[in-house]
Amino acid sequence: MNRAMSTESSFAAALAALPLLGPHRLHKLLIRHSPSEAWAVIRGDHRPHASIEALLGREFLGHKLRERATDEHLHTIHERCITSDIRATFIGDGEYPAILAADIVPPAVLFWCGDLDALNQRRVGIIGTRAATAAGRYMASNLGHEVAERGISVVSGLARGIDAWAHRGAMSPSLRTKPQSSAIGRPVAVVASGLDVVYPRENAELWRDVQTHGVVLSESPPGTAPEAFRFPLRNRILAALCEVLVVVESRAVGGSMITVEEAVKRDVTVMAVPGSPRTSSSAGTNLLLQQGCAPVVEVDDILVALGLDHRRCFPNTFDSRRRPQVDDQRILDSFGDCPRGIEPVTLDQLMVRTGVDLLTLALSLGRLEAEGWVVNNGGWWEAVGQLRA
Amino acid sequence: MRSATLLGVQGRPLDVEVHVGVGLPGFTIVGQPDEACRESRDRVRAALLSSGLSWPNRRITVNLASSGERKGGAGLDLAIAVGLLVAQEIIAPDRCIEFAFLAELGLDGSLRPVPGVVPLVGALADRDVVVAPQCVYEARAVARRNVQAVATLGELVSCLRGDSDWPEQQSPMSEGKVGIDNSTDEVDMSDVRGQPAARRALEIAAAGAHHLLFIGPPGAGKSMLARRLPSILPPLDADDALMVTMIHSAANLAIPSGGLIRNPPFRSPHHSASMIAMVGGGTAAMRPGEISLASYGVLFLDELGEFAPSVLDALRQPLEEGLVRLSRAKSSVTLPAKFLLVSATNPCPCGEGAPGVCVCDVRMRQRYLRRFSGPLLDRFDLRVAVDRPRVDDLLADEHGETSSCIASRVVRARRVAHDRSGCLNSMLTADLLDEHASLTRSATQLVRSQLERGRLTGRGYHRIRRVARTIADLQGDIGEVDEQHIAAALALRIGVQPLLLGDQS
Predict the structure, then answer these.
(1) CA distance A327 to B30
(2) Contact (CB, 8 A) for A93 and A8
(3) Which of B2, B26, B137 is closest to B76 using CA atoms?
(4) Exposed, middle or buried, A317 (CB in 10 Å: 0-12/13-18/19+)?
(5) Helix spans in B424-457 (H)
(6) Would an 8 Å CB–CB cutoff place A89 in contact with chain B?
(7) Cα–Cα distance for residue pair B30/A363, rounded to 1 Å
(8) Cβ neighbours around A312 below 10 Å, total
(9) How far apart are CA A92 and CA A53, in angstroms?
(10) Whose CA is closest to A368, among A338, A310, A326, A337?
(11) Is residue A81 packed enough to be buried (19+ CB in 10 Å), middle (13-18) or exposed (0-12)?
């Protein structure tokens, strides 16, 4: 399905891959010139627009750029895009997503893999920390699943933890078997590295799936390593693509909070999932709630925020897990009363709280685990909701 | 003259022969003495002269027979001195035939203690032994015949000549090294508040000699818990006590004034310990390492992850066999290493570990865990996550049981295990397991479900059964192993390898 890249987008890709020509300078260049013209400007074959003369006029920069902007470079980048099936578009191009064109800091050149039409659905961002609790992962997965089920596309960052689980939920095989499977939400991912540099490696399969069912976007040219400074830049694109941004779990500082800031700048509704005040992975979300964010406890909350009709949409509240026995229920209750389970606890803490003997407790935990009420994560027990995806 | 030197934890008897002949005045020691041994020339000379005895101005040759093995230490001083006196006919040879001599000499003619008196005396079973007064209790703990303690060379000479009687024994406690014996009694399990599961794990470890690993953040009380393990172990029986005393004596560690170490030793080497410090060897005398010193007791490795990986892996074979074979170019020895390993580690570099609290990157966590090799982790039958006790949990719980209360249960469970199979539960082989730890049907189902879900490996299966057996013994259920015992064993053996990977469900 290699569709030959248009000449202009080849030039755009080559420009984006030039060193010293960061997102900011590239943007300045491409709003004044078409990519082929801009290429000629860099090469010194074309007079630059008056507003960017100063930018390129600096001896060192202009010289360096001219040195690198060879036909060979153009060719290499082109080949690279073709081999990895990466497409490029640039600001002003017909294919360039309208939602980004209207953004306050639009990426000058955008690379993508998959189908850009995925951006035409309703879009909800589901993001969060990489070091998530089991409860957080279950929540992300369930939200992703239920949102996709209603034809809403899940936008996320393909990072470890919450991001990955949101997409896993949104692409769970059970969705594909449904009769109206054409109407399910398609996944949208925005990544920081080049589209042929899968990071983190363990998400490679997930990354491929997103490409197949939806689209993976990046501002970085092929071959770009996941450098730290690219993640905040990625977050701004992610925020720009969302209609509603849901933070499932986040620390008080971190990538998710940067995305939230970017979303606030763009008047995107930010919502957060409440968590235990004692787990630091919920510190950020709780802070957001404190500052007046709307809480998300179930998918309805998101539908309301999107202005969708949620009255006829029966939330999938049926819990197929077998109800625990009375004794087991008592132990499950001791985990906490928050709907999605409170903080992780050790065996010690459970024994103290319930006053139950080790042997009885171990049996109960075994039963609860088999039925999916609790999970053990490296010695810490967590109560979780049912994984729907 | 009879004396002995030390190799590993065994004494090695040897004969000291002295020849005084014609020739240029001189003094040579042959038979592969080491530096300390060769210097005894000067000590012996000074001691003789300051005791008012004569020094022969003739050619003196001392042979340490058999001459093929290397000898070390200053413990042969006294034997050489007595040999010289016999050669000068100051003492009659037949007066010495029943004696062996074990002491270093001071320049003033006083007798000084030597390291490893217990195994040395043990090796000289057919003689009366003469030692310095400071070591008399150690020596007497193992001696089959008389032990004589004299303070100076002059005194010894007059006793051997029959001019005076052997000195009366002083009452114990008057002198000698300060014992370590009762020091472990200061800590008690009742000091631990809350943490019932961790306490239970200690009890199980003590009852079945199962190796135990605590995983938890700093301040969770891992070390505090581990230090209380010796307090719930039964006291050593006579054979074990003798062995422990020999090992400690060979390493020149303090021996209690009672002579025998009766409480299980507790060793906690710092994580900078070298391989030789850990397994033994090093000097020509093959000093026992920490694993031997912890024999019949507890070896506690705090901050397991900070130990050198090679040191940790060196523990694997002793853990299996209960002994360590040290081979060097000149000698090889087998040292006992039958210890109960208790370790504590943080779950990750930041130390927090708990999901949602830990801030470590997945890769950092993996790198941290890679330091423990799989086979080593596999040898921990009990792996327990401990967290800092929360304030309300602390307040909710009264003081725990006392050590003596737990210890009585441990003793009972150990006796049950011994009567059944003749060994502790952790030593049960697969055949014995089938015989003595058969599972009820529901227990079999539980184990099968774990095996099918890939939670349990074949080796893990046996370990779980051993632990479950111990749990049942502690409960007093001496019949088949039931579902609840297996469940508890599973709950006390958490997975370490895929610990909290961000994406593991």
Answers:
(1) 80
(2) yes
(3) B2
(4) exposed
(5) 430-436, 441-452
(6) no
(7) 71
(8) 5
(9) 21
(10) A326
(11) buried
Nearest Cα neighbor of A358 from B343, B471, B407, B445 is B471
Burial class (CB in 10 A: 0-12, 13-18, 19+), A342: buried
Q: Which residue among A160, A202, A282 sits closest to B356, beta carbon to beta carbon?
A: A282
Find out whether B378 and B211 touch, Cβ atoms under 8 Å: no
Distance CA B90, CA B81 (A): 11
ipTM: 0.77
Closest of B57, B2, B252 to residue B135, by C-alpha? B252
How far, in Å, are A119, A148, B166 from residue B149 at the CA level? 96, 90, 8
Q: Which are the contacts of B315, defined by CB distance < 8 A and separation ≥ 6?
A: B278, B279, B291, B341, B376
**A380 touches B: beta carbon within 8 Å:** yes
Instruction: Answer yes or no: do A134 and B505 touch at CB < 8 A.
Output: yes
Tens digits of residue pLDDT in A115-166: 999 999 999 999 999 888 888 989 999 999 999 988 999 999 999 889 999 9
The angle subtended at Cα B209 by Cα B203 and Cα B213, nearest 5°, is 70
Residue with structure tokens 């006083």?
B110
Contact (CB, 8 A) for A267 and A275: no
Decide: A210 and A169 in contact? Cβ < 8 Å: no
Please tell me which of the candidates A131, A164, A358 has its beta carbon nearest to residue B359.
A131
Q: For residue A142, what are the CA distances in angstroms to B87, B259, B380?
A: 96, 68, 37
- Beta-strand ranges (E) seen in chain A are 87-90, 109-114, 122-127, 152-156, 188-191, 215-218, 244-247, 269-272, 294-295, 374-377, 380-383
The DSSP output letter for A342 is -
> Residue A59: is it exposed, middle or buried by C-beta count within 10 angstroms (0-12/13-18/19+)?
exposed
Tell whether B499 lies on the interface with A, counting CB pairs under 8 A.
yes
**What CA–CA distance (Å, rounded) separates B382 from B214?**
8
For range B385-399, the mean pLDDT? 72
- Cβ count near A267 (within 10 Å): 6
Q: Of A205-219, A334-348, B368-382, where does mean pLDDT reach its minimum?
A: A334-348
Select the residue of B197, B354, B484 nearest A363 (Cβ to Cβ). B484
Question: Smallest CA–CA separation between B195 and chain A, in Å?
Answer: 5
Query: How many whole angstroms separate alpha carbon B481 and alpha carbon B466?
Result: 10
Instruction: Give the pair of three-digit tokens for residue B1.
Output: 């003259």
In DSSP notation, B215-265 reads E--TTS-HHHHHHTTGGGSPPP-HHHHHHHHHHHHHTT----TTSS--SPP
Q: What is the pTM of this model?
A: 0.79
With contact defined as beta carbons under 8 Å apart, do A378 and A334 qualify? no
* Residue pair B205/B226 in contact by the 8 Å Cβ criterion: no
For residue A290, give the 3-state DSSP assignment: helix
**What is the structure's pLDDT at B501?**
36
Contact A376 B492 (CB under 8 A): no
Binned at pLDDT 50, 70 and 90, residue B182 comes out as very low
Contact A133, A120 (CB under 8 A): no
A114, β-bridge pairs: A215
Partner B, chain A 102-131, Cβ-Cβ below 8 Å? 130-131
**Distance from C-alpha of B284 to C-alpha of B34, rounded to nearest angstrom:** 9
| Gap between the Cα atoms of B194 and A348, Å rounded | 7
